[in-house]
Amino acid sequence: MNSIHPLLHTYESVLVRIPERLRQRRMDGVHDMGGTDGFDPVMPVEHPYFTADWERRAFAMLPSLVGQDVINMHEFRHGVERMGGVRYLSTPYYEHWLAAFERLLVENGIVSAAAVERRLDAALGDGDLDLSGGDPDAATVTATIEDGHVSERGVDDPAFEAGDRVQVRNEHPKGHTRCPDYLRRASGTVDAVHGAFVLPDANAHGREVVDPLYAVRFDPEELWGPDAERNEAIYADLWERYLEAPA
Question: Residue 132: is its pLDDT beyond 80?
Answer without folding.
Answer: no
